[in-house]
Write a structure and sequence with these properties.
The chain has 120 residues and is mainly β. Helix content is 0%, strand content 62%.
Length: 120
């Protein structure tokens, strides 16, 4: 199986920054797309940013110009640098990866979630 461990969430004032990290480990042959989702109270989970194995990125309109996704393939890690945070960015942030496993399967895995709270 594959395990994802997230870190970097917390409480920050509006206008501040946070950097989320997600490390994947386990039965990994290769990691394809990696991404971040978020879910605010009473709302559906939404995609925030994704990055392909080739480094192509896409972002939700609400975070374009403020958030940057990146990855370190040698460390099986994906990052989300969040700048100019707004109260509406408050949510639980989840890491999501598409993995080709050593068992010849392709599966999607989710992290446990990390809370990001932005105060006004």
């Amino acid at each position: 199986q594959v395990q994802l461990v997230e870190s970097g969430g917390g409480l920050v004032q509006a206008g501040g920054s946070l950097r989320l990290s997600c490390v994947a480990s386990g039965s990994i042959f290769s990691i394809n797309a990696m991404g971040w989702y978020r879910q605010a109270p009473g709302k559906q989970r939404e995609s925030v940013a994704r990055i392909t194995s080739g480094g192509s990125t896409n972002y939700a309109d609400s975070v374009k110009g403020r958030f940057t996704i990146s990855r370190d393939n040698a460390k099986n890690t994906v990052y989300l640098q969040m700048n100019s945070l707004k109260p509406e960015d408050t949510a639980v942030y989840y890491c999501n990866v598409l993995v080709s496993t050593i068992y010849y399967s392709i599966d999607t895995y989710w992290g446990q979630g990390t809370q990001v709270t932005v105060s006004s």
